[in-house]
Amino acid sequence: MRLGMDGLFLRGQEGYEEARADRVFNRRRPDRFPDAVLVAADAAGVAAGVKLARSRGWQVAVRAGGHSWAAWSLRDGGLLIDLQNLTTMAYEEESGIAVAGPAVRGGAELAPFLASRGRSFPGGHCPTVGIGGFLLQGGQGWNSRSVGWACESVAAVDVVTANGSLITADPHQNSDLYWAARGAGPGFPGIVTAFHLRTYAAYPFLWHDTWTFRLDDGETLLDWMHDLLPTLDRRVEPVIAATRVPYVPLDPGVEHPGGTVLLLHTTVMTSSADEAAALLSVFDDGPLAGRRLGHVRGETSLAEEGVAQEGQNPTGHRYAVDCAWTDAPAAALAPPLLRLWRELDTTHSFSIWYGWAPSRPLPDMAFSVEGNVYIATYAIYEDPADDEHYRDWVHSRTAALPGAGVYLGDTDFTRRQDRFLSDANVDRLARIRAKWDPDGLFASYLTADVAALNRPARAPGATAAADVAGDANRPGRTPGPADVAEGSTRPGRTPGAAAGVGRDVDVDVAEGSTRPARAQGAAAGVAEEPNRLG
Ligand SMILES: Cc1cc2nc3c(=O)[nH]c(=O)nc-3n(C[C@H](O)[C@H](O)[C@H](O)COP(=O)(O)OP(=O)(O)OC[C@H]3O[C@@H](n4cnc5c(N)ncnc54)[C@H](O)[C@@H]3O)c2cc1C
């Protein structure tokens, strides 16, 4: 069968498997197989791909940078349009607007391109993340506490629509699509071929401040940071990372205690070194000042921070990831969070507490759920036999946190769903999808249970304790619907392949307890529901 398009790989043809899977960052690449993959040459190629899909009755999935943890770009059947060639970058001095293709990597490519022009943009912390998925879902980037979600700095988008037209959406034309492009993520009803980005003057100074503490000091650290957070300058970005990598700051003569330690890692962008030092001095006199294992403060650069991020997020590894916003006080958050942190058991697995503390209402855009603190956990391992174990663990332990919604970027709705849009915005997005994509050409959110999409995981008033209670320590779990969702090729977990912590989690119970309204016998398997969001 010839379809006459360069870069088109039909299932079964040579090159198909590489085109299907090689650009998915997560080595845990699901067994979902599109009918064909089109590596589009440019925006015109994208439009041709959309028309081809229409003519063949294919649904369309999209890949830009390939960094979706859950591999949203991989769907069963239909056409995957890969945007890897859409990497042009331009900068207009007069307006300060940069125009960048969706497969541009925010840290590795856009940041140096802008820095050489004295400009900056809040790209993703890990330098290889593509701006396509990152911006559409919100974008938590460098200096975001100060300049907001990265999508707030999107001035316009060029979009291939469901009928194959190439249009521009901004506040004055096609403004509903522009609204959706800032937060809808994979629910966006079109393919963005270029982002027009407001840029910022580059800060001359980026400083970091990194303290190493024992895991046993976690409760005190959380108490302290929850107290300090409301007072912190917006340019100060505090993260507590529970990490097991051995190369952490240690004072002379101090030995790593082994296992997991806590890093209080803060960055700040300022116009002078003195200002940076002054802003960071608030960390000097905390309750743990005498208990540090190590401390380093000084100038850094996005490139150096990027190297650290890549070290923490190695390629070639398998990832199971989940996240939660929380407005809970430290006293309620600490017990389940410390339990999770104590159970980290691979060299690279880590979990972060990110002090976000929203200080203003969000602008009118699809993105609409955030909270005081962001918790995200990344189980990182290499053996496919450990997939089920780590997926069960990360989602059940995250469900046990006193959460209030999620950020799309660190979710996997095939295993655990929660609210990521306000109710009003879900309805508005559904109307926009119905208008721009009435036939459901574009694949929407990847979820095991369409009916539960955007449903709060926690019933109002529910406590974390109730969730933990459901998390019975039973050996041997019964496969649940989510197991079906990921396909059947998993060999089953090798006994003793990883340390046993958390191995006994029954995720079905944990998930069930946090989804009160889920219907008995709700659809198993990965479901895609075009033009309805749940
Ligand atoms: C190592 C690593 C570090 C990360 N760090 C951060 C971080 O610091 N901050 C943060 O916010 N997130 C972070 N993320 C999450 C990341 O931003 C999201 O996974 C994001 O979706 C990745 O975008 P992508 O284009 O690379 O991914 P892809 O997998 O290519 O895209 C994800 C989905 O977005 C949609 N999409 C992408 N591009 C387009 C387009 N042009 N038109 C229409 N739909 C499109 C499609 O549905 C696509 O399947 C990180 C992820 C990884 C793997």
UniProtKB/TrEMBL annotation:
Q: Which spans does this entry mark as compositional bias, Low complexity? A: 510-528
Segment Disordered: which positions?
A: 464-534
Keywords, alphabetical: FAD, Flavoprotein, Oxidoreductase
Please list which residues make up the signal peptide: none
Keyword Protease in annotation: no
The record's section on PROSITE patterns has: FAD_PCMH
**InterPro entries tied to this protein:** BBE, FAD-bd_PCMH, FAD-bd_PCMH-like_sf, FAD-bd_PCMH_sub1, FAD-bd_PCMH_sub2, FAD-linked_Oxidoreductase, Oxid_FAD_bind_N
Cited Gene3D superfamilies: 3.30.465.10, 3.40.462.20, Uridine Diphospho-n-acetylenolpyruvylglucosamine Reductase, domain 2
Pfam family name, one: FAD_binding_4
- Provide the FAD-binding PCMH-type domain boundaries: 30-202
Q: Which cofactor does it need?
A: FAD
Keyword check for Signal: no
- PANTHER family in the cross-refs: BINDING OXIDOREDUCTASE, PUTATIVE (AFU_ORTHOLOGUE AFUA_1G17690)-RELATED (PTHR42973), FAD-BINDING PCMH-TYPE DOMAIN-CONTAINING PROTEIN (PTHR42973:SF39)
Q: Which family does it belong to?
A: Belongs to the oxygen-dependent FAD-linked oxidoreductase family.
User: What is this protein's name?
Assistant: FAD-binding oxidoreductase
Q: Which organism is it from?
A: Paractinoplanes globisporus
